[in-house]
Design brief:
alpha+beta; 7 helices
């Protein structure tokens, strides 16, 4: 008989366990900071939460520089660690709001249920999910599914009393349709708790959806960048948009107070070029899954990318936070370590790309 017990010490099991053994932290007030195992503190705004991959073992979490909580996890566990004593948690029943009798259509509104106060770590409840992206596409009739959330207890009291409406009601969309679509895109790909390469897309969209004074500086000399690009249609679902990501190449050549740029893709002409393209995209993704520290390109495509700065011939024009290329259909901005680009066609269709320096 085959044993179903997973033992650490096997390379692929250890790697999977390190990635999928997690603690989940919910903000306990206007803002909550958490540092795990002596690492850098991460701040969560009001109503926010984040999942952290920590691996099996005992871990210490320090909240707001003072409250210390230890939790011991086995491989592939997921535990919630309260950020404050007597923190209020509740479940949102999405069984009727997200699934009809045939398990596909969204009907009705979600209900608040299973309220609890916790001071000590507890295992993430069964049949509960963090984000809508995690929800199954279809369920059997009668299946109960929930989203786990946390709010300050007094706010939850008011919500349950019906004074403020449902905690899952969406804010009014931004008046700018481009910004509104990017907000929808961010929600669809799970930017409330992003993982893997989705983090890069959330950071890229955040260059427009979040208030930030960061302005994209031009490099001192010609520079090329490699990344990924997705098309965001004006209408339709967005959860699968990332599946259509393609390689994106950016080059900037400064001159005087501005310079020149080029933003392009690559159309492979044969199987060898297609393999180089696939390898380049895999290398970009590997940076964001923690499997690589930098993008590596094979000789053929690498040599081509290195020629792009010298051939960049489209003028750059300064904007409040970045630069437009040519007639303004594409804007470049900074987003953390990334250079991101947003293209629009005037009909509501967008293309978003992020780039790492070559």
């Amino acid at each position: 008989m085959l044993s179903t017990t997973l033992a650490t010490g096997c390379g692929w099991i250890d790697k999977a366990a390190a990635k999928d053994t997690k603690v989940v932290v919910y903000s306990a007030g206007p803002a909550t900071s958490v540092a795990i195992d002596g690492g850098e503190a991460v701040e969560l705004g009001a109503g926010k939460f984040q999942s952290f991959a920590v691996g099996p073992g005992t871990h210490e979490l320090v909240f707001d520089g003072s409250r210390k909580v230890s939790v011991t996890l086995e491989a592939f566990d997921r535990w919630v660690v309260p950020a404050a004593a007597d923190q209020c948690f509740f479940s949102i029943d999405v069984s009727s709001s997200h699934y009809s009798a045939d398990g596909k259509n969204r009907l009705g509104g979600p209900d608040i249920t299973k309220r609890q106060q916790q001071s000590e770590p507890f295992k993430f409840p069964p049949q509960h999910y963090l984000t809508e992206k995690e929800l199954p596409a279809e369920v059997s009739s009668g299946t109960l599914l929930y989203m786990l959330r946390s709010l300050p207890c007094d706010e939850l009291d008011r919500l349950e009393a019906g004074l403020d409406g449902s905690p899952t009601s969406e804010p009014a969309p931004p008046a700018d349709p481009t910004l509104a679509r990017l907000v929808e895109f961010s929600a669809a790909i799970g930017c409330d708790a992003p993982e893997g390469v989705a983090k890069a897309w959330c950071v890229a969209a955040g260059a427009w959806t979040h208030v930030d004074d960061a302005k994209l500086p031009l490099p001192d000399t010609g520079k090329s960048y490699v990344g990924l690009r997705v098309e965001i249609p004006a209408d339709g679902e967005l959860a699968s948009v990332l599946d259509g990501a393609k390689l994106s190449l950016l080059a900037i050549r400064p001159e005087a107070a501005a310079g020149f740029g080029t933003l392009s893709g690559v159309n492979p002409e044969n199987d060898d070029e297609r393999q180089e393209l696939d390898a380049a995209m895999a290398s970009v993704r590997a940076v964001f899954t923690g499997d690589a520290k930098a993008v590596e390109l094979r000789d053929g495509i690498g040599a081509y990318v290195d020629t792009l700065p010298a051939s960049a011939a489209t003028s750059l024009t300064a904007t409040e936070r970045g630069w437009t290329i040519g007639d303004g259909e594409a804007e470049l901005r900074a987003a953390g370590p990334l250079v991101v680009a947003l293209e629009h066609d005037g009909a509501g269709n967008l293309a978003l790309s992020f780039h790492l320096p070559r």
